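Dear support,

I submitted the protein below through the web form. The confirmation email said the job was done, but the results page showed an empty box. After a refresh the structure appeared. I'm attaching both so you can tell me whether what I see now is the final result or a partial one.
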Amino acid sequence: MKFSFAIKAVAACAVSLCASASFAHIVLADSAALGNTGYSAALRVGHGCNGAATTAIRVTVPAGFKDAKPQPKAGWVLSTTVGKLEKPFDDHGKQITEGVTSITWTAAPGNALPDAYFDEFVLRGSLPGEAGVMWFKVLQTCETGSVDWAEIPAAGKSAHDLKSPAAMLEIIPSDHVGGHQH
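What the results page shows now:
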């Protein structure tokens, strides 16, 4: 009896996770990570805009995501915006007040991501030590139209209540001290 309940509970959780991943059309490949560690944010683009191919992805680096570095992608032009950080941080005794605030991948001619395919766009950085939720806002530009995946639910609400939710990362408390890995 307990075994059957456990299987049903695991199945229900799996269905719930799959449903949430398919609901938010740009999601993080790993939606939870330990605080105070390095993290590779792989933003998974599941489709284009109303059937049109994706031509650009711009992610706003969340406050508290330290030392953001994008991964180049073959066939895409990479650019970053550097500016004042919303949450400055200490790096080996040096106060860091400026850094990458947004990253854009733009398809080179002939390299747009067709609506029928998916792909991942990756940036790496370090997570804060505090447990909680971090939101990655993404502007998806297509051959025709765009979708701004930037909505964040109000307290007590779910991302399921939103039309275009930002990609969510759950930061899990960690005893790890340091904040980055080389």
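Response: this is the final, complete result; the empty box was a page-load delay. Helices lie at 2-23.
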